Structure formats: structure tokens, C-alpha cells
Please model this.
Amino acid sequence: GENVEQHPSTLSVQEGDSAVIKCTYSDSASNYFPWYKQELGKGPQLIIDIRSNVGEKKDQRIAVTLNKTAKHFSLHITETQPEDSAVYFCAAPNYGGSQGNLIFGKGTKLSVKP
Amino acid sequence: DTEVTQTPKHLVMGMTNKKSLKCEQHMGHRAMYWYKQKAKKPPELMFVYSYEKLSINESVPSRFSPECPNSSLLNLHLHALQPEDSALYLCASSPGGSSRVLHSAQYFGPGTRLTVL
Model:
């Protein structure tokens, strides 16, 4: 089955700086990679996703890049703001076990200091 | 509208109680999911319903019993839970069922914070 590793586990940046979170996956057949933001006391919110037929996708201050050869994908947040503080999860589909399910990374707690 | 609603927001129950968690979506999604999330951990899949039929049960104890009355509703019936079952229970939905070719986004509800005494 799929295995997803996420780094770093915690990230602290100054407001206005950029933040980068990286994930690696194991199944070369994986073709869909979402990123979720979870604020305290709330459910995960889908913020951006990418499919394997593109290498990069942007949505305002956030972007995701995908390197299929190296089997890793990254979340980039530019011009960070205090409201970006949250836990971020990457995920990839699990085809080997529960087909169609998502396997999540362990999460990155991002703190943006004003 | 990408909203999944869950009720109640908080639930406290004793080990002998029977309670139910409810989830609803009106996006026309055909797959619905229950996840369990412990503090500082990622969500863990419990059940998947695809086209109103249970397609995945991740070896969940029988004290958790899912039900999908129709394509918009998903319930999780709880009975004889243990204190270690205390967690945030998340419901999610996605447009399609399992698809190797084109995986679809999952949208999560706000969760039910469950405490078992």
C-alpha cells in the first residue's frame, strides 16, 4: 500500500516569509495529491490539489509542485499571514490496500509570527 | 456548495450509552466516509460508502456501526464505547466512488468531538 512521509513536523516563519512543506510517496501509480489545512477545533479543509498530468498548480498565495520521477510533492505558501497558522496534511491515494482511500502524512504545524 | 454538515458538534457519553453521529451533504456526492482523528494525528479511515453500499471497513470494532440511509446521509451508531474511543469523528464525501483513473477530492465536515467517560 501507499506510504506518505511529510516534513517538517513543525515550521515557524515570520509574517510575510514563505513556507514550504514537503511530502514523499511510495506508489508510482498514485495520480492525485491533495493538501488539507486544519485549524484548531475544525475539520480538514481542502486547499489545493494536483493531478499527475501537471507539474505545478497555483491558487493565489499557495502552490503545489509535483515531481513524479522523484515521487515527491510540495506545498508552497508565499507572503504568509497569521491566519495561515494551522496544521497542514498532504495525502495520496491508496491503491494497494483500501482502494480509493487517501493516506495522509503526519502533518505539519505551521506557526506564522506577526 | 462544498459543505458537509455534522451533528452534534460535541458529545459526551458513558460506556453503556447508545448514541448516533449524523452527517449530511447535498453536493450529489456518491461516496461518503467516516474518519477518526486523535489529537495531533492525521485522520484514520474507518468506513467508506460508495453508492450507498459499504465498500470499505477498516477492521473497525463492532461497537461502531455505520449506516447510509440515502445518498445524502451517513450515520455512525455508537454502543458500548471505551474511553480510548474518545476522538474527533470526521465525515467526508467525494463526487465518485473508488476510481484508480481519476481520484476525486474529499470534502470534510467540521467533526463531532466525542468524549467517552
The interface with chain B takes residues 29, 31-32, 34, 36, 41-46, 49, 51, 89, 93, 95, 98-102, 104-107 of chain A (CB under 8 Å).
